[in-house]
Request: fold
Amino acid sequence: MIYLKYYIDNRQSKYEITEELEKLLELVINEALMVEGISKDYEVSISFVENSEIRELNREYRGVDSETDVLSFPMEDEFEISTLLLGDIIISIERAKEQSLEYGHTLEREIAYLTAHSMFHLMGYDHMNEEEKKIMRNKEKQVMKNLGIFKEK
Reply:
């Protein structure tokens, strides 16, 4: 059994982070690790922010002066001997809400997908070219399918 330690940091006031959402994110995190075959104990943090903060972070760390939906900050170092410190996930609630409306599904589904997406970034995946993008998207889809979280039509 993998020991999960995750932290939620809610730095926004536009959306309530419910216990149900936290449980969903725990499921998504665990499923992403299972899809990847990771069996170590791990730690990850998820911060919820507003567009202004994610824009500032995007500008500072990526040199891109615009809002984005999610940022991932992998740690790549092992903490103690048996715990993998994966890193930090930063999600813009405002952007996630906009995208959920655009794609026609719930905010919770969008946040779940962004978390899955970010988990694979934390585990070393990227989508800079089509081959990498295909691999990463297939893993994200597998997590969502395994959890029964589908796009609503």
The mean pLDDT is 90. Residues 61 and 71 are 10 Å apart (CA to CA). The first strand starts at residue 4 and ends at 10. The chain has five helices and four strands.
